[in-house]
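Troubleshooting: if your tokenizer reports a length mismatch, compare your output against this known-good record of 172 residues.
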Amino acid sequence: MDLDTRIKKLVTGMSARDAAEARTAPEQPSGSTEDKDRFAEFSATVEVMFLMAAVDGSIESDEITKLAEGIRHMASGAKLDETTLAAWLEELHDKLEKDGWSRRLSEAAAKLTTPAARARAFRLATAVAMVDDDVAHAEAAAFDAFSHALELEDDVVSRILREVQEELFGAG
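Known-good structure output:
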């Protein structure tokens, strides 16, 4: 079963455990504090992207692709196979169901401790929302919630929204 199918099952509430051979979500490294901090930032960024994709109640195929692409890009060099990715996203889905969207956003934002990390997470979440060239009302409202939770200035938010739109669809 391909990644798209697994994640589609995940976000519609069906268990990805049936599709995954093992539940091997990434674990926090046991190395240096710097490695642990990088992992926390990586995990929080993935969760922010996931929350943007899930904010409108469904994750579209284009969003799934962009989400997986962003995760793989950030994890370059790390082993992150389809089974691991599906299990990790299932875990995020379970946390979302248990804690709710606002709490998950707040907890993820708290792990993004630098302005650069917060801007990067917002940029990637924006790309997930915009990739299908149709920003749903819930996604548009989420931009405000994300920018507030990530403590981003209005000019930074505007610049990122513009840049992502240009990167995805060209200047125009």
